[in-house]
Amino acid sequence: MRNLNSVHLNGLRALEAVGRLGSLQLAADELGVSVGAVSQQVIKAEAQLERAIFERMPKGMVVTEAGAAVLAALSEGMARLSEAVSMAQKKDETTLTISVAPVFAARWLVYRLDRFAEHFPDINLRIDATTRLVNPAASDVDLGIRVGSGQWPGVRAELLLQQEVFPVCAPRVAEGLREPRDILKLPAIIDGKAMFSWEVWMREAGLSGSTLTTRHVFNDASLCLDAAIAGQGVMLAWQTLAGYSLQAGQLVAPFGIRARTGFGHYFITAEGTREPKKVRAFKEWIRFEMKETEALFA
Q1: H or E stretch at 53
Q2: What kind of architecture, by CATH, is found in domain 91-298?
Q3: Rounded to whole angstroms, how far apart are CA atoms 39 and 33?
Q4: φ/ψ (deg, to 5) at 161
Q5: Are the CB atoms for 177 and 183 separated by under 8 Å?
């Protein structure tokens, strides 16, 4: 195959496209370049091959007798290349790759993966835990779940759950809390990367403008939750973050007052593509599991 080193692939693509489609304009449209660029690629390829593939006629490009055999072989070769690319790009329908924030994976998803396996034993999950928004159209990720406003460019966002926040603390820390104002006596554990402030909940509880004394500040919500479980203060949590710890009795949510932040959990998928069966199955399962989480706060 060393003879391929003497000819540029773009030139061979141009020759094949012009020969198959019958015109420079149609070839340019397919290749996504200008007519002039295709013409130059054809001229350069013919020079590298040291053979005229087309004869320039007043009515357009006419394939020479020698060029007909070359173009037939090129078309066959390009078809094989296209098949190889499609094969490489085809995603495994038995493996589902999902991109989620580490805190969502650690505090909500991992506790439920055995139930997904029971319902869908033929689908293997691959978890990509990252805070970076991944575009499924430009990666091997099939589906993402992110918290935000739902306004992300280049992807399709579908609301899964409206985010609601509420104070949580260890049961012993909650002793003596009788009314919402009592929470102001507790030290606050702050998530330094939170998209909301305590004022969101204070306003809902009729305490707008009130503040708590800050004890610790972390740059990770999961660490904040651990600090709360350890009895170091009170933190502002949300459904998927604190649900398991509440169910296990590690934390309590005093007063039962929840406040919407204006953000939500969203499914992130590729724009303009049909969702594979494995993605639809996972989304349906997640929605069912979310109902159980919501029931904790009913």
Answers
A1: none
A2: 3-Layer(aba) Sandwich (3.40)
A3: 10
A4: -155, 130
A5: yes
Residue 189 belongs to what H/E stretch? strand 187-191
Q: Hey, where are the domains in the chain?
A: 2-88, 91-298
Please give the average pLDDT of every successive group of 10 residues along the chain, which has 298 residues: 76 90 88 91 91 86 89 88 67 85 95 94 94 86 95 93 97 94 96 95 96 93 97 96 94 94 96 89 96 84
Q: SS3 of 214, please?
A: strand
Burial category of 265 from C-beta neighbours within 10 Å (exposed 0-12, middle 13-18, buried 19 and up): buried
Distance between CA 24 and CA 42 in Å, rounded? 10
Classify the phi-psi angles of 62: left when phi > 0, otherwise alpha if psi is within -120 to 50, otherwise beta: beta
What DSSP designation does 169 have?
B
* Span 147-193, pLDDT tens digits: 999 999 889 999 999 999 999 999 999 998 999 999 999 999 999 99
pTM of the model: 0.70
pLDDT (tens digit, 9 = 90+) per residue, 192-217?
999 999 999 999 999 999 999 998 99
Give the H/E segment covering residue 166: strand 155-168
Dihedrals phi, psi of 169, to nearest 5 degrees: -160, 170
Write out the CATH class of domain 2-88: mainly alpha
